[in-house]
Write a structure and sequence with these properties.
single chain, about 60 residues, mainly beta, three-stranded antiparallel β-sheet, about 0% helix, globular
């Protein structure tokens, strides 16, 4: 197993997943976003989607 750059990965490593916010869902109690990865997976290059992740676990990297 290795990351996008070929660096080996092992259990316990901390990784970052560059992604674009595709949807925002907010209420008075929570705010969730759906994400699409910037980098495609191997071997077909398809983008991965992550749905309904709470915004509190994200960190803004770059504004649109």
């Amino acid at each position: 197993m290795h990351d996008k750059n070929g660096t080996p990965l092992k259990k316990g490593d901390v990784v970052m997943i560059p992604a674009v916010v595709t949807e925002v869902s907010a209420t008075e109690e929570f705010c969730n976003v759906s994400l699409e990865t910037i980098h495609g997976r191997r071997p077909d290059g398809a983008k991965e989607r992550i749905s309904a992740i709470n915004t509190a676990v994200t960190i803004l990297h770059e504004s649109a």
